[in-house]
Amino acid sequence: MTGKQLEFDQRVHRLTKKHNKMSRGYRATMRKDGLVVMKPQRVRSAVPAKVLLLCLCGFFAFKAFLLSNLGPTGYQYRVDALNEGTSVEQAGAWIMQIDPLSQALSTQLNKILY
Predict the structure, then answer these.
(1) Where does the source fall among the domains of life (predicted)?
(2) pTM of the complete model beyond 0.70
(3) Does some domain include residue 49?
(4) Residue 29 is part of which domain span?
């Protein structure tokens, strides 16, 4: 009797899991034999990857603009001043430090602007 109960519990668990997935949305598909089967839809992210990529590109462009406008010494002076502050400011200094991509973009920006 224990084997039957375990098999029943597994089936109930599987059906409950499928029901929870279907409550978020489903779509109907037809199999090759003509049977219509409901499949749960995948949950999409609230923020698309394109938006995240665009924000990252904008951030590097902003850093490159600051680096080109202030110059490397002035930029590094401000980052060092940020690094002496609170832990949040230190995290900001770590993010804003000069990296190769920002430096390359800054040199290209200097060629265009100046």
Answers:
(1) Bacteria
(2) no
(3) no
(4) 14-44
